[in-house]
Design a protein that fits this description.
The complex is a heterodimer of chains A (648) and B (321).
Chain A (H helix, E strand, L loop, with lengths): L2 H4 L5 H23 L3 H9 L4 H30 L9 H35 L8 H20 L27 H29 L12 H32 L13 H34 L7 H14 L14 H14 L1 H15 L8 H24 L1 H7 L3 H31 L5 H27 L16 H31 L38 H8 L12 E3 L5 H17 L3 H20 L5 E3 L1 H13 L3
Antiparallel strand pairs in A: 1-2
Chain B lengths: L1 H19 L1 H4 L8 H34 L18 H29 L12 E8 L2 E6 L4 E4 L1 E5 L4 E7 L4 E5 L3 E6 L5 E5 L5 E7 L11 E7 L1 H14 L5 H9 L6 E3 L24 H6 L5 H8 L15
Parallel strand pairs in B: 1-5, 4-10
Antiparallel strand pairs in B: 1-2, 2-3, 3-11, 5-8, 6-7, 6-9, 9-10
Helix pairs in contact in B: 3-4
Classes of the chains: A mainly alpha (648), B alpha+beta (321).
The structure holds protoporphyrin IX containing FE and copper (II) ion (CU) (2 copies).
One copper (II) ion binds next to loops of chain B.
């Protein structure tokens, strides 16, 4: 292997990226050393098993990835702004849309959602932790190092370039000879296994660790959505694991599962990919539905309308999500019968989704609606997502999809679903739970500015794509000629994308502004909210609840506030058992990273060494005797006194 | 909240305006044959149905947001506890079910319709054209006429055309928006598209499935001519164009971009398409010995020609077409 095969060379943009990566890394190292924060970082964050901190690390990583994916998006939009533009060449554009899609779905949307559930779920069900705290840390570091591995491809060896769906035979060694798609299979594999473990962890947490009296039908809607989401993860992710393993064998060990020759089946990849891929979009959207439900009921000061049908509709969506995957390749020539079946199952999802929309609208009825920043995102979601939903029904009709498939119409549709759904959802959640995480609120005025820029920018950026699609513009085209007439609408879309980007910049500036100026000591319940997490002080002590709450109804905290009934029993504190921190999950992540990186370049000796390392780590863990530690009753009393004494 | 209402009415008005102008401007809604016409009608019908849904949601939404804002209620107003309503919830479950049922019927009927020779043209013998993609161009073979073109295809008007699609590389998708929707071209099997052009004219055709570096340039012209002009063109090609030799075909496959080409013979003889026993996908049971019995198939030669393709091995994956 030559140097210039290893390092991506000859691209000014990549040199700039090299320089900035080196500078940022240096700045971090120097900063940490200068302020003597290495120990703090290691003790408090890298080795933590506290679900709240793990959640915050997920969210920070997701925000960074949002920016990486966002810069990709702006580059693409700039390239498409005018006909015959020369900013990006074909190869570069192909790499960028591939990593944009991958990063946004797998390393932004998913971890953001998982971060939200890490922060909130134990608090919302009245638990002191997740079921397997150490496993939770392993999940995070697997995701993190998977994401790093994919990002490394940009400067070392070249990014994947066969689209985020990586269809074969295009993604095979024959047509994609660079290591780009090796990165694809390994980075996704590592983080995917992490996600699968999260799935198991949260199912057990929600089923086994609810506070006394919290029956299933008393759970807040976000908890319900997370439970259902994790069941989907449990069924969908093994398919991805298998598909990626076969891909890795094809690309690295020369097997022929998906190749053109020797009976390889290209469409088998498409089937496996979408059997996972379609449920995946529900994995990122159902928790957002849960967040919107909690936010809407909090800020209209009402209980959620049609609680039962909300739960039933989510279960229905989760079942249907596994029965629709073939709508991604109606055009494979599978015949009218099969296409008809998948059309109907796909359109059927509109029914439970519609039920949810109407229940949200009726939650507002007779309410007392205040337009705080989380509520704005929830209210922005409804009309925009409905456009995404109805265009989804249009796409579901097979005969019509023959005309939309692989066009900008599709690109418009899925952004109309993913951005108001998932992105607005996690942003609503982030603004909403921010005081739980950090003890202060984000500045409302800046938040509103960001919101309106995002809403306006979004529609200007994506509405034109519907018309471009109907006018014959395909997706993944790095350039087009002036004679196509695609120019003007693309220019409008690009302007919209930049407005959207400014919105995100304002949103992030808000962190710094609020960190310095937001009032502290607003108490544990700044929004006058309804669910258990708001009954704890902010920020939340490590043990979450000094005493476990006694749940007597839905919206237990609201009930307690309104009827003046105690949520916690009287009496002295008892000591609490906590899991101890551990460096092992982080180290395991590093070893996984080395394993993945070695395999990308087919360096088998380091790969074997790293593989042995993984086994050793697992063995060490199974022989370890660590029973955690106890927080004494006295210490709890002191903490509670300090936290509640001057705040409540 | 004024801003929001203003924004949404703007979006809505622009949709309506753009749609009313569609007939003349957007390719997909400007069909030049019965298949695309069916699809265009389906699309417009679904837009109208969905506009209905949107209007209901938007009216409810605006009503709720304007009526129940905190700023409009008194400080001591306590919102009531509302569990939900069986009847209302039933209504907004049943009405969508009815809508979906209607759309399902339309979908199944139109999907069947576009998979067949269009109505009214069943009695004519379709013109068969093999359309094969390779990086990054299209090869069109007319087996009956004995001619082949690259990167352009001429068809007669008012006669059914049966495109048989396959690929010498990554999956591509054959699409002529004004004649009808697309279908995949894959290396191991043939897919079919039935088009009829009922207008003369030149239509844009392209590959719409990402297939690598040269994908964006993978466009071709589809020219619909009167039957007389078409026959004349065929005769012309037969008389003036060179024959397509195996060597020449190999060169074509290996060259990323070339302009238009015409030949007075096809590649189907020496590089048969993945059809019948040649197909990688066996529909029902494996039949590796059928290769041995069908002696005339120049299997070895084909492997030579296509370099990387080996179709002797049969997979068992079912497509059910
Ligand atoms: C923030 C503003 C965003 C902009 C301006 C944007 C823009 C784009 C553009 C221009 C493309 C490529 C179109 C093409 O050439 O085919 C694209 C593709 C895509 N985007 Fe976005 N996007 C944004 C956010 C997102 C988000 C939040 C997600 C997911 C949560 C997402 C998921 C995707 C996916 C999956 C693809 C397809 C990638 C592929 O074709 O392989 N995007 N986006
Ligand atoms: Cu899908
Ligand atoms: Cu096939």
């Amino acid at each position: 292997m030559k140097w210039d095969e290893f390092f991506v060379t000859g691209e000014p943009m990549i040199y700039a990226a090299d320089v900035s990566i080196i500078l940022v890394s240096l700045a971090i190292v120097i900063g940490l050393t200068y302020f003597k924060k290495w120990g703090y970082l290691w003790r408090e964050w890298l080795t933590t098993v506290d679900h709240k901190r793990i959640g915050i690390m997920y969210i920070i990583s997701a925000l960074i990835m949002l920016f990486r994916g966002g810069v990709d998006a702006l580059l693409m939009r700039t390239q498409l702004a005018v006909p015959d533009n020369k900013i990006l060449d074909a190869q570069h554009y192909n790499e960028i849309f591939t990593t944009h899609g991958l990063i946004m779905i797998l390393f932004m949307a998913m971890p953001f959602v998982i971060g939200m559930m890490n922060v909130v779920i134990p608090l919302q069900i009245g638990a002191r932790d997740v079921a397997f705290p150490r496993l939770n840390a392993v999940s995070f570091w697997m995701f993190f190092f998977g994401a790093m591995l994919l990002n490394l491809s940009f400067v070392i060896g070249g990014s994947p370039d066969a689209g985020w769906s990586a269809y074969f035979p295009l993604a095979s060694l024959e047509f994609s000879p660079t290591v780009g798609n090796n990165y694809y299979s390994l980075a996704l594999q590592i983080s995917g296994i992490g996600t699968l473990m999260t799935g198991v962890n949260f199912i057990v947490t929600i089923l086994k660790m609810r506070a006394p009296g919290m029956k299933l039908m008393r759970m807040p809607m976000f908890t319900w959505s997370v439970l259902i989401t994790n069941v989907i993860i449990l069924f969908a992710f093994p398919v991805l694991t298998v598909a990626l393993a076969l891909m890795m064998f094809d690309r690295i060990f020369g097997s022929q599962f998906f190749t053109m020759a020797n009976g390889g089946m290209d469409m088998l990849w498409a089937n496996l990919f979408w059997v996972w891929g379609h449920p995946e979009v529900y994995i990122v959207i159902l928790p957002a539905f849960g967040i919107f439900s909690d936010v809407i009921s909090t800020f209209s000061k009402k209980n959620l309308y049609g609680y039962k049908s909300m739960v039933v509709s989510m279960v229905a969506i989760s079942v249907l999500s596994f029965l629709v995957w073939a709508h991604h390749f109606y055009t494979m020539g599978q015949g009218a019968m099969v296409n008809g079946f998948f059309s109907i199952t796909t359109m059927a999802i509109a029914v439970p989704t519609g039920v949810k929309i109407f229940n949200w609208l009726f939650t507002l009825q007779k309410g007392k609606i205040s337009f705080t920043s989380p509520m704005l995102y929830a209210m922005g979601f409804i009309p925009i997502f409905t456009i995404g939903g109805v265009t989804g029904v249009m796409l579901a009709m097979a005969s019509a999809d023959y005309q939309y498939h692989n066009t900008m119409f599709l690109v418009a549709h899925f952004h109309y679903v993913l951005i108001p759904g998932t992105v607005f959802g996690v942003l609503a959640g982030m603004h909403y739970w921010f005081p739980k995480m950090f003890g202060f609120r984000l500045n409302e005025r800046l938040a509103k500015w960001a919101f309106w820029l995002i809403i306006i920018g979004f529609n200007v950026a994506f509405m034109p794509l519907f018309f471009l699609g109907l006018n014959g513009m395909t997706r993944r085209m790095y350039t087009y000629s002036a004679s196509t007439g695609f120019g003007p609408l693309n220019m409008i879309a690009t302007i919209g994308a930049f407005v959207l980007a400014i919105g995100f910049v304002v949103l992030c500036y808000n962190f710094f502004h609020s960190f310095r100026h937001s009032p502290r000591n607003e108490g544990g319940d700044p929004w006058d909210a309804r669910t258990l997490e708001w009954s704890t002080p902010s920020p939340v002590p490590v043990y979450n609840f000094a005493k476990l709450p006694n749940v007597k109804s839905q919206d237990a905290f609201w009930h307690a506030k309104k009827h003046n009934v105690p949520l916690y029993e009287e009496g002295p504190y008892e000591e609490i058992h906590m899991p101890s921190n551990s460096g092992q999950p982080f180290i395991l992540g590093v070893i996984m990273f080395i394993l993945g990186f070695s395999l990308v370049f087919s360096w088998f000796i380091p790969a074997i060494i790293a593989g042995v390392g993984v086994i050793i780590m697992l063995a060490v863990r199974s022989f370890e005797r660590d029973h955690g530690y106890h927080i004494s009753a006295k210490e709890i009393a002191a903490t509670e006194q300090k936290l509640r004494g001057d705040t409540v | 909240m004024k801003k929001k209402r203003w924004l949404f009415s703007l979006i809505f008005i622009s949709i309506v305006m753009l749609l009313s102008g569609c007939d003349s401007s957007l390719l997909v809604l400007n069909p030049k044959g019965p298949v695309a016409k069916t699809q265009s009608n389906t699309i417009i019908f679904s837009i109208l149905m969905m506009a209905l849904v949107l209007i209901v949601v938007y009216i409810l939404y605006i009503y709720m947001l304007t009526k129940y804002r905190a700023s409009k209620t008194s400080d001591d107003y306590e919102p009531p506890h509302m569990e939900g309503s069986k009847w209302l919830e039933l209504i907004w479950t049943l009405i969508p079910i009815i809508i979906v049922a209607i759309l399902s019927v339309v979908t199944v009927r139109t999907t069947n319709a576009v998979e067949k020779v269009p109505e009214g043209y069943e009695s004519q013998k379709p013109l068969v054209i093999y359309a094969a993609s390779s990086d990054w161009k299209w090869h069109f073979s007319y087996p009956e006429e004995g001619i082949e073109t690259v990167n352009y295809v001429n068809i007669p008007t008012n006669r059914p055309v049966e495109f048989r699609l396959y690929s010498y590389g990554p999956i591509t998708s054959f699409w002529i928006p004004q004649l009808g929707g697309q279908k995949y071209a894959m290396s191991d099997m043939i897919t079919k598209l039935h088009f009829v052009a009922d207008h003369e004219g030149s239509f844009m055709g392209k590959n719409s499935n990402f297939s690598g570096k040269g994908f964006a340039e993978m466009e071709f012209e589809a020219l619909a001519q009167s039957p007389a002009d078409f026959t004349k063109w065929v005769d012309d090609v037969k008389q003036t164009a060179p024959k397509l030799s195996e060597q020449e075909f190999k060169t074509l496959l290996d060259t990323p971009h070339i302009g238009r080409k015409s030949y007075s013979s096809t590649h189907l003889g020496f590089a048969p398409p993945p059809e019948g026993d040649m197909a990688g996908h066996h529909h029902g049971g494996s039949g590796s010995d059928s290769d041995k019995t069908s002696g005339e198939k120049p299997m070895d030669q084909m492997q030579d020609d296509m370099g990387n393709m080996d179709m002797s091995d049969h997979s068992s994956m079912e497509h059910g077409h």
